[in-house]
Amino acid sequence: MDTYRCIVSKKDLRTFTDTPIADDVLRKILNGGRMSGSSRNRQPWRFVVVRNRERLAALARFGRFAQHVATAAAAVAIVVDDAANAFDAGRCAQNMMLTGWNFGVASCPATPHQHDEAKRFLEIPQGKTVPIIVSFGYPRAAGRGPIERTALRILAGRGRRPLDAMVFWERHGNAKLMNHRVC
Ligand SMILES: Cc1cc2nc3c(=O)[nH]c(=O)nc-3n(C[C@H](O)[C@H](O)[C@H](O)COP(=O)(O)O)c2cc1C
Q1: Which residues line ligand 1 at a C-beta cut-off of 6 Å?
Q2: Out of 77, 100, 124, 149, which residue is the most buried by the measure of CB atoms under 10 Å away?
Q3: Residue 156 pLDDT > 70, yes or no?
Q4: CA dihedral over 32, 37, 40, 46, signed as positive or negative
Q5: Is the pLDDT confidence value at 178 over 70?
Q6: Which distant-in-sequence residues (6+ apart) come within 8 Å of 155 by Cβ?
Q7: pTM value?
Q8: pLDDT tens, 39-54?
Q9: 124: closest CA among 31, 63, 50, 23?
Q10: Domains of the chain, each with CATH number or no CATH
Q11: Ligand 1: centre distance to CA 109 (Å)
């Protein structure tokens, strides 16, 4: 898939089919994360991959909006040293999600609000943090499913604000309109 098309067509989907993700595709997704740039090239991340259905269901209970983890073919917990690595973790998560989408695998992040419980469950060492868990799986042909109907009402499905509402030229506040349409 063309990179730009991959970026602009990526939606966070939360209901997945039962189809497992082949090992070579999952490996590519993880490698997409591995290849991310990071501050001083520290690569402060570790990835904990969960594929066991019962463990996915248990993991889903550690976030207020993490129900989709239970239906995923695989979930990847991104483990970093501390909050200072949040930008690195975000780059890593997005690279994994875009790699997945390139191979037709949908995804959605989940915030583990019960962070300490999630850490215990995943046996994450002391001093590390899990800012985000990403669900991966194949999207349903019927489109968004029952989880989206709940989640979308609360936090998603709002589309994006127009480019001209967020881009300023030279100085914040200088909102000169662009003279071409972005599609
Ligand atoms: C840091 C972060 C945390 C998120 N946490 C959750 C979450 O806990 N549960 C969830 O369903 N979606 C979560 N999302 C997904 C957002 O709701 C989603 O990116 C946003 O609604 C845009 O969705 P769209 O790309 O499908 O339009 C999270 C996204 C980010 C960036």
Answers
A1: 11-12, 14, 63, 65-66, 68, 108-111, 132, 151, 155-156
A2: 100
A3: no
A4: negative
A5: no
A6: 65
A7: 0.93
A8: 999 999 999 999 999 9
A9: 50
A10: 3-158 (3.40.109.10)
A11: 6
